[in-house]
Amino acid sequence: VEQVHYDRIIAPAASYQAYGIEDARISKIGDRWLMTTCSVSPERQCTALYTSENALDWRLEGIVLDHQNKDMLIFEGRI
Question: How large a percentage of the chain has pLDDT more than 90?
Fold first, then answer.
């Protein structure tokens, strides 16, 4: 760990994150950072996607997998 940025924390921002977010997994594709998280609420458990240009400022893009599955990440290399 080089530095901790407590001022850049992500927090629940959608109804499907009412109980919280956890299990962040970060990948870099080209010049863009992608992060998947597990989101939990009374309505569902799902995987949400965040994107960033600098790995500090994250934007919630929405649900990418709409069922309970914590074993998801985005591969960085080409297949």
Answer: 68
